[in-house]
């Protein structure tokens, strides 16, 4: 299948340590975070980690929930240990249909209100309050 071929190519590029500088992914080279949207509402954090851990070690997942009901709002931010895992997840899971919903998976970066970049492997996770999010869909 096309997905398996993309996975094979991506894995080969990582093994050969091919630079991403010529790719659109390069602008996110310092961000270990991805945005996941249109998540089926009945998926748990464990379900999401299971799905996304096939592309690398997941260090953190913030599944956004309704404060009053505790129900999922259908989107999350996930942090990988290795930034290259974000490329694999974006390439392989964006537009993937899961339980009748088409996932939106993309790189995430955030800026403070003052325009300060919040990227890097040691950056705090994207926050919902006090920061503007720039999620890019192509």
UniProtKB/TrEMBL annotation:
<keyword id="KW-0694">RNA-binding</keyword>
<protein>
    <recommendedName>
        <fullName>RRM domain-containing protein</fullName>
    </recommendedName>
</protein>
<dbReference type="InterPro" id="IPR000504">
    <property type="entry name" value="RRM_dom"/>
</dbReference>
<dbReference type="InterPro" id="IPR035979">
    <property type="entry name" value="RBD_domain_sf"/>
</dbReference>
<dbReference type="InterPro" id="IPR051847">
    <property type="entry name" value="RNA_proc/Spliceosome_comp"/>
</dbReference>
<dbReference type="InterPro" id="IPR045844">
    <property type="entry name" value="RRM_Ist3-like"/>
</dbReference>
<dbReference type="GO" id="GO:0071011">
    <property type="term" value="C:precatalytic spliceosome"/>
</dbReference>
<dbReference type="GO" id="GO:0000398">
    <property type="term" value="P:mRNA splicing, via spliceosome"/>
</dbReference>
<dbReference type="GO" id="GO:0005686">
    <property type="term" value="C:U2 snRNP"/>
</dbReference>
<dbReference type="GO" id="GO:0003723">
    <property type="term" value="F:RNA binding"/>
</dbReference>
<feature type="domain" description="RRM">
    <location>
        <begin position="32"/>
        <end position="110"/>
    </location>
</feature>
<dbReference type="InterPro" id="IPR012677">
    <property type="entry name" value="Nucleotide-bd_a/b_plait_sf"/>
</dbReference>
<dbReference type="GO" id="GO:0071013">
    <property type="term" value="C:catalytic step 2 spliceosome"/>
</dbReference>
<dbReference type="Pfam" id="PF00076">
    <property type="entry name" value="RRM_1"/>
</dbReference>
């Amino acid at each position: 299948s096309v997905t398996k071929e993309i996975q094979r190519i991506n894995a080969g590029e990582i093994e050969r340590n091919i630079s991403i500088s010529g790719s659109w992914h390069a602008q996110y080279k310092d961000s270990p975070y991805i945005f996941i949207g249109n998540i089926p509402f009945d998926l748990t954090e464990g379900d999401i980690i299971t799905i996304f851990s096939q592309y690398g070690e997941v260090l953190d997942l913030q599944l956004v929930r309704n404060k009053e009901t505790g129900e999922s709002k259908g989107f999350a931010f996930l942090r990988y240990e290795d930034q290259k895992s974000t490329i694999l997840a974006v390439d392989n899971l964006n537009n993937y249909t899961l339980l009748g919903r088409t996932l939106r998976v993309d790189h995430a970066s955030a800026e403070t209100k003052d325009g300060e970049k919040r990227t890097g492997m040691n950056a705090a996770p994207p926050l919902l309050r006090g920061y503007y999010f720039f999620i890019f869909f192509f």
